[in-house]
Amino acid sequence: MTSMQTSKPTLNPALRPFWTTRARNKVLYGGRSSSKSWDAAGFAIFLADHYPLRFLCTRQIQNKIEESVYALLKIQINRFGLRHRFRILDNKIINRHTGAEFIFYGLWRHIEEIKSLESVDVLWNEEAHAITEAQWEILEPTIRKEGSECWFIFNPRLVTDYVWRNFVIDPPPNTLVRKINYEENPFLSSTMKDVINAAKTRDPETFEHVYLGVPRTDDDNAVIKLSWVEAAIDAHKKLGFEPSGRKRLGFDVADSGADKCANVYRYGSIVYWADEWKAKEDELMKSCNRTYNAALERGAEIVYDSIGVGAGSGSKFEEINADRKAADPWRSTAVQYTKFNAGEGVHEPDEVYQPGILNKDFFANLKAQTWWLVAERFRNTYNAVKNGEKFDVDQMISIDSDCPLLEKLKYELSTPHRDFDKNGRVMVESKKDLAKRDVPSPNIADAFIMSFAPTDTSVDVWRILGSQ
C-alpha cells in the first residue's frame, strides 16, 4: 500500500492522466472551486514522499508564508496521515525519509534571488495568471535540471495576460494544457453547489468568468478596451467606408535598452501597415531613413516622437529632403514631418471637450488627449459594428486585417491604464509605470496613436526648399 492509499478520498480521478503524463510545462486552469490547487498539493505530497525532489513554490505577491501554498500542503500531509514523515518548518517543508523539500518565494520581491537557485525539479506557479514576460524570462532558464517540470495553476483573468496568451492560446512545445471546472470536482460540497447555482442565475457573465474559467476580454482600467479594438478589425469593410483624408506615418523612436522603433501608417480612418525594429541610439539616421522611405512609398507625412533621442529626427528628415533636392533640383516630392511631444500641453486648450469642461481642464497633456480621442474612435466603431449606431467616418477607426504585427498591436493598444494627475485631469500610464508592471514599452501602439495626433503638420518642406 502506498502512502496515498487511505480510507479518505485523495486526488481527483479526472486529473490523474494530467499528473502522471510527463511534460516540461503543465498548465491547469479553470474556474473557482475546481480542486486545481488542492489536487496539485496532493500530487506534490505524493511525489515528495516517494522521490528526493525539490519543489519551488511561487506566487506573485507573498508577504508571509501563510499566503503561499504552504498551508495547503500542510492540510494534505495531515489528510494522508503523513505528519510523521514530514518536518514542517517556518519557511519550508522537508520529507524526513526522501529528503524532498518545498521552498516558497514571492515573485514580485524575490525574482532576482530565484535566479541563483539550483536543482529545482518542480516549479509550482500558483495564481500563475499574474506572471509577466520579464519574470518568465528569468524563471524558465532557472528550472534547468534534467526532467524538471513547470506547473501553472490559475484562474484566468484577462485574455491579454502573458500566461494565457503564451501557455493556453499558443503553448510552447512539450506543454500539457488542461481545463477543469467545478463540475469535475468530486469533493464539492452541497453548500458550494448552491452558491454556484445562485451565481449562475444572478449574473451569467460573472459566473462564466469566476466558475467556468472564461477570461475577461476587457481590462476595466484600460484606456482602450480590447473588445473595441477587435470590433475595429476590418470595420471599413463591415461598415462600407473607403479611406479618405490624410495619409500619416507615426514614428516611435527607441530611446533605451530593449526598446524598439516602430512605424504605423494610416490613410484617413484606416490603419493599413505597421513595422517594428531594433536600433541603437547612434543609428537614428538609419531609422529616420527607414521611416522616410516608408512615408515616401505611401505618400504620407510623418509624425515623430520628439522626446529623448527622437528630438533629432526633425533635423534628419530635413537633411534627407535637402539631399534629395540637391540630387534632383526638379524633384517634385518631399516628405512633410511634424513632432509629437507627449508631455506637451493639450491641443486647442480652450476648446470645449465636454459640456462645461475645456480640453485643458480634462487632459493633463497631449499624450492623454490623443489616447482619449483614439479611444473614442474605437468606442464609436464598436457601437457601430455591434449595435448599428451611426457615426461619421472621421469619428471611427478601422484596422485592416492584413496589417502586419496585428496581434501585438491589439495587445499593446489595450494595455496602458488610465491615470490622473494631482489636479484630477486624465493621464495615460507612463512607460515607467508600465515597467513597474513588467509591461514592455508599447512601441507600435505609440506609433499608432501618433498617427492620429491632433497636431498641425509642419510647413510644406518642399515649398521651402523650392523657394531657395
From TrEMBL:
InterPro entries: P-loop_NTPase, Phage_terminase_lsu, Terminase_L_N, Viral_DNA_packaging_terminase
Residues in Phage terminase large subunit N-terminal domain copies: 24-213
Any Pfam family hit: Terminase_3
Membrane-crossing segments per the record: none
Domain of life: Bacteria
This protein's name: Phage terminase, large subunit
